[in-house]
Amino acid sequence: MSIIRDVLIWDSERQNAEAGDIVINDSGLVSEILPPKSAKGERLFDGGGYTAAIPGLVNSHTHVSMTLLRGLAEELPLMRWLQTKIFPVENRLLPQHIRSGGELALLEMISGGVTCFADMYYFMREVAAATVGAGMRAALCRGITGDDSKKLNENLALADEFNGRDGRIIVQLGPHAPYTVPRDAIEKIASIARDKKLGVHFHWLETEGELETFRDEYKISPSDYLEGTGLLAVPKLLLAHCVWHPVDELDRVKRDNVTLVHNPKSNLKLGSGYAPIKQMLEKGVNVALGTDGAASNNRLDVWDEMRTAALMHKGYHKDPTLLSARQVLKMATVAGASGMGFERVGLIKKGWHADLALVNIAGPAYVGADVTNLPEFLVYAGSSRDVRATIVGGKILYKDGRYLTMDRDEIISKTTEHRKQIVKT
Ligand code: NI
To answer: For ligand 1, a single-atom ion, which residues have Cβ within 5 Å?
Structure first.
């Protein structure tokens, strides 16, 4: 038993926050929530009455190793950005670059209270090993482009080696996007996903041009494509971006196994548009939140993503009631974790995994925060800099500026060297 003492607890099932002690059992699960300063046991963390405890944040769409490409290409439209700037450098990346770039991303995310992420890239054994070493949770896939059985086999080998590891790694299949993978290959991947009970992570209608291609070339509606390829029937489907998913086809993706991932800052920065999140939430579609990679954001900061999401749709629709702080916190916690297939992750309750972000609410921006308004303070006034500790499965990964599972200085010096290598060659 270990205790997180005297914190203000909030998750998306609660109306008001609750002062209390969180008791964690030896399996890393929350076993009890007791009145503040009453629990007995080893003290993992003392909140001192000025710390909020929220579920660990979940980044539901990213490419962690792209931290090495951050700042490499700016202010270009998606297809030119990819084809002239990003793909040529990616062709030069080696496994050690993927590892170090991934570790750099984990440093950034862990210090911001992120405990779980969904990632698509290549040399994914490196990302899996970095994740296991850091003690985070992740849903990982090998990004597949073309009709490429070598890439698909790498993805399946990743599943054989890592799926279910420590209860913290889920391996999904990762067809990149409809415009990079032919339809018959998508059908094959979806069929394997169903047979092997694996989820699928897919880029979906990020730009308007992709929607036009469905209309003009494929001559099929996007939802008929999702259904016809078998993607809608895989155990878990993560659809990243969905900026141009037709509003009149949202009923088709309102399914328990389908999650749409909103990436507001990447969509804004690449000029892709405003995803119809208002209509998705009205329809009851499961919506999660992601940063996308650091080359198109350029932060891996879920706090920043929450705030941007909460603000941009209010302005776009001229309606301040849209996307409440509570809704975006749900998107950034339990909606993402369940969308990836993690069970009992994303709430602070008995029997659920003790994945937590502990937030200092003693600073100037939190004067006035109380049990009734904590989520609004966190989303509109808070920031990732307020995170005091990040905990996964009852184990502290980060506390008061120190990393307990990673060597920050070594990772930064290694990635500094690697960055020079990849831009020079
Ligand atoms: Ni992406």
So the answer is: 292
